[in-house]
């Protein structure tokens, strides 16, 4: 790997392949040269820190003066909140927003793991400490550390899932990683050293200084740990003649050389390197840290100047004014002389409310003759001092305004405003103030984002699949998860498929965020009203509509949280359209309507026919019943007629016989 901006890498001082003795001599010289170059920066930073903390002893040694105005503390606290107001959260997305399910799973694994590793106070505390160093000495550094714990565990047979047993009947033990962690560590600005150069691209080596006790040296596995000189001891200020060895430590320089991709452990005064490690993390950029934060940089050197340097002269003038104001305020006292012949006048200055001091008549007359109390007292005129104080206060306010102007911290950013100003004027001031700080805010966001990317790279290269599954809650046996792990292990594929960002480290304006959400919903509502009818009429337009919708959503910060949901919704719509395309086309609505009307008419006609048939059957039944009744009546009538005929016949016969047997007129009756 050839680092960018390092020039000719095959130089005479190339440290690759050096022995521990050669490495010790080489790096002790390089460290000494770098410390000489940073001495002025360290001295200036120490003065700024002493001023910030109001360290009276340090300030007295730096410059003997009176009272001080805490303008540095005020500006620093405001600036820290403006640059790093809240803990950033990882935002891992598919780089090109495609619909690759593997890329989506990779992004989800990285984001969940980063969130899990950042769920502690060390994470936020390290970044806040780095921003604190940025705002005071001018250089903020946070490095990444990967740590793994191993232990011996029984080896399991993959076929049976049972522990494997050795010939001695004991379980076969194997070394396994049981705990893995990647964390951010703040590096104190005086403990960070780098190769002198004009820019970060010129830096080919850097080092982190740490103090280690004898036990720490042994725990780190350094050879000859008992022989390493403990070259640091606490400042006892002459209270003890000799500091005990238990309180002494060794200042160890952890040197990372990019040219040789090697790490060296160096102690000043020790003739050989404690250890030489090949590329420990195998990171793409080699460094275990993002480019550090820098306050004021030029193009001639990568050594920064603190923000305080831009208004140091005005701050010193402000201190001088504050000292003069303090002295004049002390001089604002009611002082004067009185007639010693009236000793009771001395008590008058200490008298309370409604308290009267008795004097004899002769002294009283003396006071009256001298013009009363006004004539008995002669006070010092303090009006000139008061006038001078008014001028000093006005000048101090002008100096403070000038410092705010130079530092870019407007009254809006400090939460101060004029109630007589219009909302438009305040918005203009807020935009101007944020514009002055925008570059610094972007630099802090870049720093955190690059740190997250290095952290993600360490996680992807070192974390075991079982650990990733445990953290993310995914199924380690799932085929999609296993494919995603393969992508995680590949630097090229991982970089091509996912992009790692962070959300803002700056407080968002609540009203601006609300307005952004309203604009987003309004735009999406108008889009839906226009495109939903078109998709219903022409389903083939759904893909174009989805692409246009995703394009529009990415333009709204408030809509980024809905990108995945929108992608899922459009995917579901496309699946429904594809399923509908495989099915026969729906019938013509006119034909369906005609068929429905026909079926309705047929049903109506059938119902009418059934009704008529039922009515006809009822009529036939009624007619049959009528016929039967008539036939019965007829039979009765016929029978009655027959009886009547028989009666008539009998009567007729009887009458006939009677006629025949009746005697004729004039004849004698027939003898019997």
3D architecture notes:
By secondary structure, this protein is an alpha+beta fold. Helix content is 53%, strand content 12%. The protein has helices spanning 20-53, 56-62, 71-83, 101-117, 121-135, 214-219, 312-331, 345-348, 361-369, 372-376, 383-407, 423-462, 465-472, 479-489, 491-497, 510-537, 542-553, 563-582, 589-661; strands spanning 90-94, 139-154, 173-187, 192-194, 205-212, 250-257, 262-267, 275-278, 293-294, 336-338, 377-379, 498-502. The strands form four sheets. It has a five-stranded antiparallel sheet. Strands 3-2-9 form a three-stranded antiparallel sheet. A two-stranded antiparallel ribbon has the order 1-12. α7 packs antiparallel against α11, α16 (510-537) packs antiparallel against α17 and α17 (542-553) runs antiparallel to α18. The longest helix is centred in the C-terminal third of the chain and has 73 residues, at 589-661. It is elongated. It starts with 19 loop residues before the first helix and ends in an 11-residue tail after the last helix. Mean pLDDT is 81; it is low at 1-12 and 58-65.
Write the layout of secondary structure elements.
Blueprint: H1 20-53, H2 56-62, H3 71-83, E1 90-94, H4 101-117, H5 121-135, E2 139-154, E3 173-187, E4 192-194, E5 205-212, H6 214-219, E6 250-257, E7 262-267, E8 275-278, E9 293-294, H7 312-331, E10 336-338, H8 345-348, H9 361-369, H10 372-376, E11 377-379, H11 383-407, H12 423-462, H13 465-472, H14 479-489, H15 491-497, E12 498-502, H16 510-537, H17 542-553, H18 563-582, H19 589-661
Antiparallel strand pairs: 1-12, 2-3, 2-9, 4-5, 5-6, 6-7, 7-8, 10-11
Helix pairs in contact: 3-5, 4-13, 4-14, 7-11, 16-17, 17-18
């Amino acid at each position: 790997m050839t680092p960018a901006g390092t020039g000719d890498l095959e130089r005479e001082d190339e440290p690759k392949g050096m022995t521990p003795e050669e490495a010790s001599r080489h790096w002790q010289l390089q460290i000494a040269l770098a410390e000489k170059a940073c001495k002025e920066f360290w001295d200036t930073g120490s003065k700024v820190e002493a001023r910030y903390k109001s360290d009276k002893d340090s300030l007295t040694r730096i410059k003997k003066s009176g009272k001080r105005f805490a303008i540095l503390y005020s500006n620093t606290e405001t600036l820290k909140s403006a640059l790093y107001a809240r803990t950033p959260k990882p935002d891992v997305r598919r780089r090109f927003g495609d619909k690759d399910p593997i890329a989506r799973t990779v992004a989800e694994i990285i984001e969940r793991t980063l969130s899990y590793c950042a769920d502690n106070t060390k994470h936020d505390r390290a970044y806040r400490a780095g921003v604190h160093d940025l705002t005071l000495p001018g250089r903020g550094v946070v490095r990444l550390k990967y740590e793994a714990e191993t232990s011996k565990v029984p080896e399991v047979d993959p076929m049976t899932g049972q522990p494997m047993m050795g010939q001695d009947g004991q379980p076969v033990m194997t070394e396994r990683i049981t705990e893995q962690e990647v964390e951010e560590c703040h590096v104190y600005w005086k403990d960070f050293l780098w190769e002198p150069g004009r820019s970060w691209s010129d830096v080919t080596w850097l080092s982190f200084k740490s103090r280690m006790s004898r036990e720490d040296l042994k725990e780190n596995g350094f050879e000859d740990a008992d022989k390493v000189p403990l070259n640091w001891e606490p400042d006892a200020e002459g209270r003890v003649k000799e500091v005990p060895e238990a309180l002494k430590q060794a200042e160890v320089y952890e040197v990372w050389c990019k040219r040789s991709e090697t790490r060296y452990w160096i102690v000043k005064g020790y003739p050989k390197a404690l250890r030489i490690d090949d590329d420990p993390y195998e990171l793409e950029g080699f460094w275990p840290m993002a480019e550090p934060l820098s306050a004021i940089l030029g193009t001639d050197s990568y050594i920064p100047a603190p923000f305080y340097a831009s208004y140091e002269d005005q701050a010193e003038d402000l201190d001088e004014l504050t000292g003069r104001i303090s002295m004049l305020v002390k001089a604002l006292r009611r002082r004067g002389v009185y007639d010693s012949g009236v000793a009771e006048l001395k008590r008058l200055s200490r008298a309370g409310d409604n308290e009267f001091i008795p004097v004899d008549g002769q002294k009283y007359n003396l006071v009256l003759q001298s013009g009363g109390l006004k004539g008995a007292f002669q006070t010092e005129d303090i009006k000139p001092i008061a006038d001078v104080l008014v001028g000093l206060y006005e000048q101090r306010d002008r100096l403070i305004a000038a410092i705010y102007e130079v530092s870019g911290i407007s009254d809006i950013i400090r939460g101060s405003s004029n109630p007589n100003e219009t909302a438009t004027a305040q918005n203009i001031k807020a935009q101007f103030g944020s514009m002055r700080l925008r570059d610094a805010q972007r630099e802090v966001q870049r720093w955190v984002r690059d740190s997250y990317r290095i952290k993600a790279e360490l996680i992807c290269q070192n974390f075991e699949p079982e650990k990733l599954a445990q953290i993310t809650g995914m199924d380690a046996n799932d085929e999609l998860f296993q494919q995603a792990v393969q992508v995680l292990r590949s630097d090229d594929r991982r970089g091509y498929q996912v992009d790692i960002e962070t959300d803002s480290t700056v407080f968002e304006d609540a009203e601006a965020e609300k307005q952004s959400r309203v604009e987003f919903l309004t735009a999406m509502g108008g889009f839906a009203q226009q495109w939903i009818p078109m998709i219903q009429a022409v389903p083939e337009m759904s893909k174009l509509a989805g692409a246009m919708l995703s394009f529009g959503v990415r333009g709204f910060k408030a809509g980024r949280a809905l990108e995945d949901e929108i992608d899922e919704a459009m995917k579901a719509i496309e699946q429904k359209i594809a399923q509908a395309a495989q099915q026969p086309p729906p019938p013509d609505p006119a034909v369906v309507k005609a068929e429905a009307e026909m079926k309705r008419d047929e049903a109506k006609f059938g119902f009418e026919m059934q009704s008529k048939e039922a009515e006809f059957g009822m009529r036939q039944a009624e007619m049959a019943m009528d016929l039967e009744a008539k036939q019965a009546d007829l039979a009765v009538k016929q029978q009655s007629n027959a009886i009547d005929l028989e009666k008539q016949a009998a009567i007729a016969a009887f009458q006939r016989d009677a006629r025949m047997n009746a005697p004729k007129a004039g004849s004698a009756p027939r003898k019997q």
